[in-house]
Every structure is written in structure tokens, then in C-alpha cells.
Design goal:
The protein is α/β, with parallel strands linked by helices and 147 residues long. The protein has a single domain, classed as Lysozyme-like, CATH 3.40.80. Strands 4-3-5-1-7 form a 5-stranded mixed beta sheet. The protein has a two-stranded parallel sheet with strand order 2-6. The two termini are 21 Å apart. The structure holds zinc ion. The site of zinc ion has 4 residues, from loops.
Length: 147
């Protein structure tokens, strides 16, 4: 049984979308830097619901009941989860997740699947053939599809 406040703020979520920040693995991209970049793009705040920094810390960026700004066309019924990185030292798309990030991401997705058992887990680039991005630079559906 979920708490009353959960229902009060309930929003239908049928999709968990995994992203990368598309920043180089050898450069820090802090929550503050992410916030600045999203504010500069005209968003009210960070567009993702969760941001996982390289140290494995999960930063809650917006409440789950609030619609995010992370995947055009899929925002209304999804949550956006982003990890810091996604580009190698030369700026090429790569799965740069640290061990701490992998553990944190798995824990977070498991928890979210408890809250939203019917939600599918997909990487940003797996939403549609019209998404021409490498994001999140690994096969999220293959890795987490069975959670
Ligand atoms: Zn993305």
C-alpha cells in the first residue's frame, strides 16, 4: 500500500527512459553544471527526474509527479534518468558508467519498477527510429528490460 501523498501526486508513468549527459568521462559535469545548462535551454529546472553522478550518488532533480523535459514526445508518461558521462576521452559515444553508477542505476530502476510495475525501461535512442542520438550509449533495454 502506497502512502496518501503518493496518490495525491500520482501521475501515470509507463516508461522509464535512461539517458547520458553526453559529457566526457574525464570531465566532471556536476548537478549544478547540469542545472545551469538546462536553465540556459529554457527549462524550468533540470529536465531529468534523477541524475547519477560518477560517484554513484543519485540526485533527485524533480519529483516523479512532475512531467520532465528529457524526451520530446514521451515526457508526459515517463521518468527520465540520466547518468553523468556517455562520451570517452575523445568525445566519442561510449558506455562510460563507473561501477558505482552501474550499481546505483540498477538499484534505482529496481525501486522504480516497484512503484511502476508496468513501466518499460528503454534507452533514449530506443524510443523510436526517429531519435537520432547515441544516448545513453549502451543497450538499456537489453540490460534492464527483464527487471
Ligand atoms: Zn538522452
Amino acid at each position: 500500500m502506497k502512502s496518501g501523498s503518493f496518490y495525491q501526486n500520482y501521475r501515470e508513468v509507463n516508461l522509464l527512459v535512461v539517458h547520458c549527459s553526453a559529457t566526457r568521462c574525464d570531465r566532471q559535469f556536476s548537478v549544478a553544471a547540469l542545472r545551469r545548462s538546462h536553465l540556459a535551454r529554457g527549462f524550468a529546472d533540470i529536465g531529468y527526474h534523477f541524475y547519477i553522478t560518477r560517484d554513484g550518488e543519485v540526485h533527485i532533480c524533480r519529483p516523479a509527479h512532475q512531467i520532465g523535459a528529457h524526451a520530446t514526445g514521451w515526457n508526459d508518461k515517463s521518468l527520465g534518468i540520466c547518468y553523468e558521462g556517455g562520451l570517452d576521452e575523445k568525445g566519442r559515444p561510449a558506455d562510460t558508467r563507473t561501477y558505482a553508477q552501474r550499481c546505483a542505476l540498477l538499484d534505482l530502476l529496481r525501486q522504480l519498477k516497484k512503484d511502476y510495475p508496468d513501466a518499460r525501461i528503454l534507452g533514449h535512442c530506443q524510443l523510436s527510429a526517429s531519435v537520432h542520438k547515441a544516448c545513453p550509449c549502451f543497450d538499456a533495454k537489453g540490460e534492464y528490460g527483464e527487471l
